[in-house]
Design brief:
The complex is a heterotrimer of chains A (329), B (219) and C (134). Chain A is of the alpha+beta class. Chain A has two domains: 2-173 and 310-324, no CATH class; 180-296, Cyclophilin. Chain A has helices at residues 34-44, 173-176, 200-208, 279-284, 298-324, and strands at residues 2-4, 12-14, 52-55, 60-64, 68-74, 79-81, 84-86, 90-94, 99-102, 115-119, 153-154, 169-170, 180-181, 184-191, 211-217, 221-225, 240-241, 246-248, 256-258, 265-266, 270-274, 290-295. In chain A, strand 13 (180-181) and strand 14 (184-191) form a beta hairpin. In chain A, helix 1 runs parallel beside helix 5. Chain A is globular and about 65 Å long. Chain B folds into two domains: 7-79, 2-Layer Sandwich (Gyrase A, domain 2); 89-218, Cyclophilin. Chain B has four helices and 13 strands. Chain B is elongated, with a radius of gyration of 19 Å. Chain C has two domains: 1-47, no CATH class; 49-134, Beta Barrel (OB fold (Dihydrolipoamide Acetyltransferase, E2P)). Chain C is elongated and about 45 Å long. The relative contact order of chain C is 0.23. The chains are: A alpha+beta (329), B alpha+beta (219), C mainly beta (134). Chains in contact: A-B, A-C. The interface between A and B is large, with 40 and 42 residues. Strand 12 (169-170) of chain A pairs antiparallel with strand 8 of chain C, so a sheet runs across the interface.
């Protein structure tokens, strides 16, 4: 069990998302940085799709009520365990009663915004419609369908499954496979249905200008500010299914990228879609930071997914090897 | 939307969107239901989900080359016959106006109709469930009388309660849970549309029909 | 031989304030050469401090975590036995390089990102003594 000590946590239990319930009007939810969650799980020897705690407001404090192996992935939050430094992307064994504290993400050019607490055996909440991710609208999944609060006690793994070989770590994907465009964090985008309805200047601006992530950005969507995107002729669309990553453009001409908690349908025009393989990059981009969209096609998008897959395959293979033979290397 | 051929576009490599040509109508929607049922059985398809005269197809695993799938969808569309309305008819008791329908005044102001006329027009049709979307258990309905159409609100309501019966443009619907909405709330019902512990979790599915009954009108 | 090494830190501090460029200390079991590189202390491979952290395997030796801009240990840091003082990278895996005993960090013997073999000398520490305050 872990007890949440922070007051306004806004942390949620997430896994890789709820796939297959779109037909019930249920969006995918899931970790904003799916690579960090999957890698953290693999580091502990978990299934890569196990649930973890996504932490996005700092400082964040929790107490291990039982001894439990854990790993923090995602943002480097200069964490401490009973005051002792805890490295990001590294596995540890916590003793009963120890307090884990995460500070704000460490400043610097590589600053990212969300951290994942993975625990041996995964966060033990019931799967709802095939996933442990928190779906806030409709209050289902995760911990009672809501974000965590002070004094919540969250179950971790099974007794006997909480001790793992720990004390090693991973190179984060941002360092293995960085993506910058003119020095600005990049995300690859495929044009979407209404792309050709935007005027030439708007289409050019999409690729050539930097976009700022406004404070009105959260797990539902990232509202960007930049040049106004205008259509040659206004379009009224019928409600249709959408997915995380879709870049909608409301009347203001300022794009909104749908994120993990986005509703599964919408009606605004879509100029593009941030590809699945790069959604974690956007999910980690801090409010106030600048991003660039990099045009890509179907083949590029599949190749990017394959690179993510290769990263996780390498993590799985090398961590399994190290666990069996820590002398490796 | 005056094209005569369906439009297919990508939502990254996660899904594709199939949009039927022509004016929005029930016959087209019935063909979409047929198409979705067919596509759902294809191995590369994760989910085939009807929208409003369109369909989202998510990939179980994105194909190396999506073109054959697109051609198959277009062939299946040409062959798709309208799936008849054979769903259940669910009657919803609605309290119109008052605290249950805080925006009915705006609908009265926009349409120039009396509250009783609005209630009569709203309760008259059988509304086919075109699609499920927006939030868990929410039904997109067709068939609202144009005379009570009212534009969406300038400022969305942040927490519209579940069970709210509302009008947004030419559409009407019932919120399945608390959440933000830009629609005008004219009444409320106590029906529960979604329960994750049930199988299926949704009360209604595309092809079912909703009939609103005036339980009470607060004038 | 232990006597001069316990005072290397102090001696090198003095040395930094002089224009002496090279100081050689000889004992019965070996020699130490201190180079005065314009106030910048240089630890050389041929110099034998008391505690040498060696590589636990083959990989890229990292002074700092790949996600971090700062080294795991800095000049003068007091290090506890088993403390992680460096990392060894093999593909996406990071393995700990641990201090074999308590000590004070003197310097890195290999550059950040350099490929090293098992047993390669990576980090120099000196024993913490009462004469030297951390």
């Amino acid at each position: 069990m872990i007890e949440i000590l922070s007051q306004t946590a806004l942390a949620t239990v997430q896994d890789l998302g709820r796939l297959g319930a779109l037909g019930f009007g249920v969006g995918t939810s899931g970790a904003m940085d799916d690579l960090a969650l999957a890698a953290g799980n693999l580091l502990l020897g978990n299934d890569e799709a196990d649930a973890a705690v996504e932490i996005q407001v700092f400082p964040f404090e929790l107490r291990f009520q039982v001894a439990c192996a854990f790993a923090l992935t995602g943002a480097d939050c200069a964490a401490t365990l009973d005051g002792q430094p805890v490295m990001p992307w590294w596995s540890y064994q916590a003793n009963e009663g120890q307090v884990l504290r995460l500070g704000p993400p460490v400043a610097g050019p590589g600053r990212i915004s969300r951290a994942y607490l993975c625990t041996a055996g995964g966060i033990d909440v019931p799967a709802v419609l095939g996933s442990r991710s928190t779906q806030l609208r409709g209050a289902l999944g995760g911990y009672e369908g809501r974000s965590l609060r002070q004094h919540d006690v969250v179950r971790v793994g099974q007794p006997g499954d909480r001790v793992r070989r720990v004390g090693f770590g991973l190179v984060p994907p941002a360092q293995v496979d960085p993506l910058l465009q003119d020095g600005v964090a990049g995300m690859r985008v495929m044009p979407a249905a209404e792309y050709d309805h935007y005027d030439e200047a708007s289409r050019a601006a999409l690729w050539e200008q930097s976009w700022k992530i406004t404070p009105q950005s959260d797990r539902y969507g990232y509202r960007l500010s930049g040049p106004k995107l205008s259509m040659t002729t206004p379009l009224e669309l019928r409600s249709h299914g959408i997915v995380p990553g879709v870049i909608q453009v409301p009347h203001s001409g300022q794009p909104i990228v749908q994120m993990r908690d986005a509703q599964p349908s919408g009606g605004y025009p879509k100029i593009g879609t941030v590809i699945k393989a790069d959604l974690w990059r956007l999910g980690q981009a801090p409010i106030g930071s600048m991003i660039r969209f990099i045009r890509c096609d179907w083949d590029d998008a599949l190749a990017a997914e394959q690179r993510n897959r290769t990263y996780l395959d390498n993590v799985r293979r090398l961590t399994a090897l190290y666990r069996s033979r820590p002398g490796l290397a | 939307m005056t094209q005569t051929e369906p439009q297919v576009s990508f939502l990254g490599t996660t899904a594709l969107l199939f949009e039927a040509p022509g004016e929005m109508c029930l016959i087209t929607q019935q063909r979409i239901w047929s198409l979705a049922r067919e596509a759902q059985s294809w191995p590369e398809v994760g989910e085939a989900i009807p929208g409003m005269n369109n369909m989202l197809v998510s990939f179980a695993d994105p194909p190396t080359n999506p073109t054959p799938l697109i051609m198959r969808l277009q062939d299946a569309w040409r062959a798709a016959r309208p799936m008849p309305l054979q769903g259940r008819l669910v009657a919803l008791d609605v309290i119109y106006g008052g605290d249950a329908g805080p925006h009915i005044g705006d609908v009265i102001a926009h349409t120039g109709l009396a509250i009783d006329d609005i209630v009569a027009l709203h309760t008259a049709p059988d509304y086919p469930v075109y699609a499920i979307g927006s939030h868990p258990g929410y039904c997109y309905l067709g068939g609202m009388d144009r005379r009570i159409a009212t534009p969406r609100r300038q400022v969305p309501v942040l927490r519209l309660p579940g069970g709210a019966v509302s009008i947004g443009g030419l559409q009407t619907g019932v919120s399945a849970s608390d959440g933000p909405s830009g629609w005008n709330t004219i009444g409320s019902t106590s029906m529960v549309f979604f329960d994750a512990t049930l199988s299926p979790p949704c009360l209604l599915q595309p092809g079912d029909v909703i009939r609103f009954r005036a339980e009470r009108v607060i004038r | 031989m232990s006597m001069p090494f316990q005072h290397i830190h102090q001696i090198s501090e003095y040395l930094a304030g002089t224009d002496i460029t090279l100081l050689e200390l000889r004992g019965p079991k070996g020699a130490v050469r201190l180079a005065n590189n314009a106030g910048k202390r240089v630890v050389r491979d041929d110099l034998v401090p008391e505690i040498i952290v060696t590589s636990p395997g083959t990989g890229l030796f990292l002074h700092r975590h790949p996600a971090s801009e700062t080294a795991l240990i800095h000049d003068g840091d007091v290090v506890a036995a088993e403390q992680i003082v460096g990392l060894l990278r093999v593909g996406v895996l990071l393995m700990p390089v641990k201090a074999p005993s308590d000590g004070i960090f003197v310097g890195h013997l290999m550059a950040h990102g350099e490929l090293v073999d098992f047993g390669k000398k990576l980090i120099a520490l000196r024993a913490q003594t009462k004469e030297v305050q951390p």
